[in-house]
Amino acid sequence: FFFQAEDGIRDHCVTGVQTCALPICGIWIPVKGEGLWTGKKSGEWNDAGNWCKEKIPTPEISVLIPGGTVFNPELNTAGFCDTLEILAGGKMLLKGLLQVRGNILAPSSSIHATNGSVVFNGSKAQTILGSQFTNHTIGALQVQNNMGLSIQDSITVNQSISIQKGFIQTNNLLIIKEGAVVGPSAEGSQIGRAHV
Fold it and tell me: Peptide bond preceding 184: is omega within 30 degrees of 0, i.e. cis?
């Protein structure tokens, strides 16, 4: 972690995450309470010892995953969050199912989800960027949002795609891998143009 002063001088700062704070040039500044990944115990998402305030995120809690933690989060079963934000250097391995009520904000290739599932179940329009996922690929994609999901960058779905509520605005950026299952979907739901 570096701090760049206006005069161009760089100061080297301590890296890492301790308890519920991030380092800013030797001073620990609290940045978030619940939902801050500390990764001090293991990579297991559903282990309270890896989260600030030792509280596993619920659908109402926004998650922040910084870089420089001892362990990166791995979700092998089911997990929840409002918004998922991954900072530079942060990574996430998704093999299970993550339900997201908000959006995902993450650098390129920071989420490895080739065999994972993401459920977008918010109450406002949601978006997804394929570039946030390794090789622009996700295992399964589900939409449970009457306001819909908009794809903003090419993404490949290699296992299944379904819509329980709402629609997917593909912007001609959805690729469904051969052999992937489409559905089941609710009556009246729509998937825009997709490539197979």
Answer: yes
